[in-house]
Amino acid sequence: MSTETALIIGGSPGMGLEIARQLAKTGHHVTLLGSSAATLEAAETELGTLAEARKVDLMNFAAVQALTGELKADSRHFSKLVNAAGVFPPSRLWSMTLSIIIATWA
Predict the structure, then answer these.
(1) pLDDT tens column, 18-73
(2) Burial class (CB in 10 A: 0-12, 13-18, 19+), 5
(3) Over 85-102, what HEC string results?
(4) Nearest Cα to 46, choosing from 77, 69, 13?
(5) For burial by CB atoms within 10 Å, which of 11, 20, 47, 54 has the most?
(6) Integer Cα distance of 29 and 23 in angstroms
(7) Given this model, what pLDDT does residue 13 score?
(8) In whole numbers, what is the pLDDT of the chain averaged over residues?
């Protein structure tokens, strides 16, 4: 079994959670980042002691900086980084304003 650690951005639900499941099966410790407390809590419960969930708004630079500081203070070292976070526009591309496009894909 591995004692490696993985940071999974977009760790619940969907592809990020499935990657977390597969890594946990091989003994990896996984830290899941996401925006929904409910889905993160469910993922953390499912994965057990190998998982830690952290709610963070990735569109909020100050929140990301604060989380980075917390992880550094805990002397966290990740051997794997998975970016499974996705965004979906609230409407069809041709009907979106510039501010929605920037908020979705910038």
Answers:
(1) 999 999 999 999 999 998 999 999 999 999 999 999 999 888 889 999 999 999 99
(2) middle
(3) CCCCCCCCHHHCCHHHHH
(4) 13
(5) 11
(6) 8
(7) 82
(8) 87
d(CA 72, CA 66): 10
Tell me, rounded to whole angstroms, the distance of Cα 49 from its chain centroid. 17
What global pTM score does this model have? 0.79
Q: Which two tokens stand for residue 21?
A: 């499941």
Length of the chain: 106
Give the Cα separation of 63 and 74 in Å (integer). Answer: 17
Q: Which residue has the higher pLDDT, 71 or 96?
A: 71
Helix, strand, coil shares, percent, the chain, to 5: 45, 20, 35
